[in-house]
Amino acid sequence: MPDRFATGDRVIVSQADPPGHRRAPRYVRGQVGTITAMHGRHTLPDDVVARVAVPRVEPVYAVAFPAHTLWGSGDHTVTVNLWETYLDRAVDGV
Amino acid sequence: MSGTHHHDGSIAQQVRELEAALEERGVVSSSAIEAILDALRTPADGARVVAHAWAAPGFRERLLADGTTAVEELGYTMTGGVRPQVLVVVENTEAVHNVIVCTLCSCYPIALLGPSPPWYKSEAYRSRVVRDPRSVLREFGLVLAPTVQVRVWDASAETRYLVLPRRPHGTDGMSEAELAALVTRNGMIGTAAV
């Protein structure tokens, strides 16, 4: 399957909070960031922890978030690595 | 279980007792444990990578473009753990300062720096450096000019980050070994300049 996203895409982190493991830090859930790099394809830890027989292997992206959107202040950026499942395309104006 | 089994000792004592029990049952041998400890990397390994990047511009370019492959030139591998890792090297410049963290647990470039320092695993560092890195860095003694852009890298997946510090002034004639001796662990985490 082709990668859903490319460098420069604006994405929003899913706020889904299913039971079990989800490797998306809470401070970026629901936040909009920009994909700055692709970091290869990796086994989804959620499936590994749930002992799924054939865990999904997905693209992992580096997503940069401006501090002021995360915290309301700050001039730095925070970059987080996120599996494709955690991301949706950000709608303009979000 | 023997009568010596108890939980009121220090962690170190409990580990020694566990090790002794496992050896007694033939699960592990002390020589195997020593071999693993001997194979552990130390910050001197990461310093060797940094010094080579300072001395060899071609290597620096390859390291920044694809750290995972570039460090293999020096005999290091990111595939020694449970899962293969990706190494991303982030370069400090006059305009940009990088700092690494793992907010979910304690992911760290062990393959190049060895075990992480205790503060790296502390809740205080992990929660504060993503929120107010300039204040945290100031507490480490690193005061950045307001014009310097700060980039925080949260190692939340299989990627491990390493900071390539700025080469200090006045080191033009130095050998790679002399350069490596200047590179500190905190310099490669981003909580210090070199």
Descriptive overview:
The complex is a heterodimer of chains A (94) and B (194). Chain A has 2 helices and 5 strands. Chain A starts with 9 loop residues before the first strand and ends in a 5-residue tail after the last strand. By secondary structure, chain A is mainly beta. A 5-stranded antiparallel sheet of chain A has the order 4-3-2-1-5. Chain A has helices spanning 45-49, 67-71; strands spanning 10-13, 32-43, 57-66, 77-83, 87-89. In chain A, 11% of the residues lie in helices and 38% in strands. Chain B is α/β, with parallel strands linked by helices and 194 residues long. Chain B has 10 helices and 4 strands; from the N terminus they run H-H-H-H-H-E-E-H-H-H-E-E-H-H. Chain B has helices spanning 11-24, 30-39, 43-55, 57-65, 67-70, 110-113, 123-128, 133-139, 176-180, 185-189, and strands spanning 86-91, 96-101, 149-154, 159-164. In chain B, the strands form 2 sheets. A two-stranded parallel sheet of chain B has the order 1-4. In chain B, strands 2-3 form a two-stranded parallel sheet. The longest helix of chain B has 14 residues, at 11-24. Chain B is globular, with a radius of gyration of 19 Å. Chain B starts with 10 loop residues before the first helix and ends in a 5-residue tail after the last helix. The mean pLDDT of chain B is 93. Classes of the chains: A mainly beta (94), B alpha/beta (194). Chain A binds chain B through residues 23-25, 27, 37, 39-40, 42-43, 60, 62, 67, 70-71, 74-83, and chain B through 83, 86, 88, 103-104, 130-134, 149-159. Strand 4 (77-83) of chain A pairs parallel with strand 3 of chain B.
